[in-house]
Design goal:
seven-stranded mixed beta sheet, elongated, 13 strands, Gyrase A, domain 2, 2 domains, Cyclophilin, four-stranded antiparallel beta sheet, 28% strand, single chain, 236 residues, alpha+beta
């Protein structure tokens, strides 16, 4: 994915990082450019590279200040950006399946309200959510809170004006074009349209989170009985 003209722009941060900005708005091509560059950087890191943290329109590149510095890191990033396109950089995204139950007010307390706001039926809203191609953009707010782009326009609604407390872990929430599966009990101003028993946090695994930025997520509908059975299986 080619960045937009005039971008990206590097900016020194503290004594150990460079913020590489790909734009000033949230847009699909910018999100794709960030994900592609993050993949290339991790595949071909420069000396002193520690980690990268992708976001909607930027990548925070952390380096060891005892090994590298801002000038060296920026030069390495510029060189990577200038490299010709390589087929190896186009590795297909990993697909992760998430189970979700939409049945009942305790599972999906805002589903009917979302459908009503969009002038469609509840089952149409469910079908729209299941049809989305969700790409993990970034983590934020809480451990494992993966912000996923791709919520279809048929159910895209702005976030609420007031947050709701005590939203349980596993709640599938949407706002605008984004979707999240919550990982802890916490307040949210997003719309609660389902609940998933699929564990996202895996602290004892090599991968502590189920998915990573750049992965794609597909939701699969399950019944309330299936949810209850899966919740028992995955209970700590």
């Amino acid at each position: 994915m080619t960045p937009r003209e005039g971008w990206p722009r590097p900016r020194a941060v503290a004594d150990h990082a460079v913020l590489l900005e790909f734009g000033e708005i949230i847009a699909p091509d910018i999100i794709a450019a960030v994900a592609a560059f993050d993949h290339r950087l991790n595949a071909r890191p420069f000396p002193g590279f520690v980690e990268s943290i992708p976001a909607y329109a930027s990548v925070m590149v952390i380096f060891d200040p005892l090994t590298s510095d801002h000038e060296t890191a920026i030069a390495a990033l510029d060189a990577l950006l200038a490299e010709p396109h390589r087929a190896a950089d186009d590795a297909p995204p990993r697909i992760v399946e998430i189970e979700v139950c939409y049945d009942g007010d305790d599972m999906a307390p805002d589903l009917a309200a979302v459908a009503a706001r969009k002038g469609i039926g509840v089952e149409q809203a469910v079908a729209a959510h299941l049809s989305g191609d969700y790409g993990v953009v970034m983590y934020g707010f809480a451990p494992g809170y993966a912000y996923m782009a791709g919520t279809p326009a048929e159910i895209a609604v702005p976030r609420k004006t007031q947050a709701v407390r005590g939203v349980p872990a596993g709640t599938v929430i949407i706002a605008a074009q984004m979707c999240i599966v919550t990982t802890i009990e916490a307040p949210t101003g997003w719309w609660r349209i389902g609940r998933s028993p699929t564990p996202i946090l895996r602290p004892h695994d090599e991968r502590p989170f189920l998915f990573e930025p750049g992965d794609h997520v597909r939701f699969r509908r399950i019944s309330r009985a299936e949810f209850d059975a899966r919740a028992k299986e995955t209970a700590p």
